[in-house]
Amino acid sequence: MTSDLSQVTRSRNGRPVHHWRRDLVELAALFTAVAVADGVANLIGHGPDGPALLVISAVALAATAGFHTWWARRHGHAPPVGDTGARPAAAAGPAGQSSAAGQGGPAGRHAADSSAAAEERTTLWRMRTTVRDEPGSLATLCTALAAHRVDILSLQTHPLADGTVDEFLLRTPDALSAAELTRTVARAGGRSTWIERADTHDLVDAPTRILGLATRTALDAAELPLALRQLLGRCTIRSQPAVPLNGGRGPEPVPVEGVLEETRMRLRAPEGGVLTVERPYLPFTPTEFARARALVELDGRLGPRLPRGEQVLTLPEGNDITVRRIDADGLEAARAMHERCSPDTLAMRYHGPVGNADRYLNHLLSPRFGRTLAARTASGRVVGLGHLLWDGDETEVALLVEDDWQRRGIGAELLSSLVSMAVEAGCESVYAVTRAANTGMVAAMRGLGLPLDYQVEEGTLVITARLGAAPAAARPPYGIARGTLGDRSHRN
Questions:
Q1: Please, are residues 334 and 250 in contact by the beta-carbon 8 Å criterion?
Q2: Fold match between domain 121-201 and domain 311-484
Q3: Residue 453 — φ and ψ, nearest 5°?
Q4: Which residue from 142, 162, 185, 375 has the least number of CB within 10 angstroms?
Q5: Cβ–Cβ contacts within 10 Å for residue 380, how many?
Q6: How far apart are CA 211 and CA 44, in angstroms?
Q7: Is the pTM of the predicted complex or chain greater than 0.85?
Q8: Using CA atoms, how far apart are residues 442 and 447, in angstroms rounded to an integer?
Q9: How many CA atoms lie within 13 A of 472 on its CB side?
């Protein structure tokens, strides 16, 4: 009789340890069994039927052993009680490596699919299409988009008399082109489809974006044209005063509720005149018209307003100059500066008869047409003006510095702040109209460190600065700050 000692081991500090206690117990049981068997054999063997009983016992033990072997072989594939389903040690691979890697097995295919999905690049699109106003039309369109693995991030509906305009924000695979996306929408019943690239700013839901625009408009009257442009997308906004500068007739008046004409809307400006919004590629919906009208009404109810804040700058000789926003309330101070400027300085700035310079100030200081910064001395005297003017979908910058305060860096600082405001407003470029003889303005534009385009038209120099490379406003235009101009005698 032999006994197979247990080979179960456990790891301690990386080395196998034998169960010696279990070995001792098995040896003691073996000796006890031998002693009992010897006693029984002696007792039975010396009796009258001893040999027969020993033979019968041996046969019974052999039969029992045979039955146990058959039973073990028949049920040998059944998992042991308490099996956790862990794979055998032979199937285990290195940490972080699938056993089916390179084998085409299920685990390998799942890992490959996950990696491919993670690496798949997507594109954001803004899409607008018109569908029939009947049950199931939108569901058909969404099903067609889903077949191309298009994810609908947001949806706005604009009801019309003969249908519904649906505006989507979509995330699509890069492999799906705009043309294929448009064809898919057309096959699903969409018409008059318009599509353009979107960015992460469009991920903000519509109510949140509209509330943000209303807040910006409430804080600054000059934000209205920019807020309308962001609300309505790529469009051109023009503000026409009730009384033009040349004294002619103003624009045709519009009713209080405004006028909607396909791709153009006209709204009554709060201070009089007309705000005209146009976009050539897509008609405005009544919903968009109502939103724009509500924003203009909010602006009119709040009245004239400017954000508070200023910048205090120190000139090389130690004088402090304060730069802050002004509007029509600073008209008299601006006119007084005109009187102290030489005719050459005024002609260099306004490109026309010097006598008309004061007439431009009402337009320039109105927040409806842009933003104006004024540089003031400690006594409150205005010695410099900087204008950021909304010109349709373009933006103009202009500077005027009093003669006695030129060549001290004031103009350069005003221009830098204007460009910062243009970047903050999302403008793509700014341009300045000047003369080639105005070396101060040319030097100030070059000092911005931005890509410049020069164009000469009949003796007039137009300098355009592209703002794509401009950093975000390094100095908050409305916040309180203090800086030093330093030695910039070569700049206007």
A1: no
A2: no
A3: -120, 135
A4: 162
A5: 8
A6: 105
A7: no
A8: 9
A9: 2
Does the domain spanning 121-201 belong to CATH 3.30.70.260? yes
Phi, psi angle pair for 3, to nearest 5°: -130, 130
Rounded CA-CA distance 450/422 in Å is 13
Taking CA atoms, 225 is separated from 213, 217, 262, 292, 369, in Å, by 11, 9, 20, 10, 8
**Which pLDDT score, from 0 to 100, does residue 340 have?**
92
Q: Cα(353)–Cα(357) distance, rounded to whole angstroms?
A: 7
Q: Give the Cα separation of 429 and 468 in Å (integer).
A: 8
> Domain 311-484 is in which class?
alpha beta
3-state secondary structure of 100: coil
**pLDDT of res. 309:** 76
For residue 87, how many C-alpha atoms fall within 13 Å in the half-sphere facing its CB?
6
Q: What pLDDT is attached to residue 217?
A: 87
Reported as half-sphere exposure (CB side, CA atoms, 13 A), residue 359 has a value of: 11
pLDDT at 147: 92
How many angstroms separate the CA atoms of 263 and 188, rounded? 26
Nearest to 348 by CA among 441, 430, 419, 431: 441
Structure tokens at 32: 């006890």
- What pLDDT is recorded for position 361? 84
Q: What is the pLDDT of residue 244?
A: 67
402 close to 340: Cβ distance less than 8 angstroms:
yes
Which of 65, 401, 371, 46 has the alpha carbon at shortest distance from 220? 371
Instruction: Check the CA dihedral 40-41-44-50 and report its sign.
Output: positive
**Helices marked H in 120-266:** 137-147, 178-187, 206-219, 224-232
Domain ranges of the chain: 121-201, 206-302, 311-484
Q: Name the β-bridge partners of 453.
A: 464
Residues recorded for the chain? 492
In single-letter form, the type of residue at position 445 comes to M
Q: Which residue has the tokens 């350069």?
A: 412
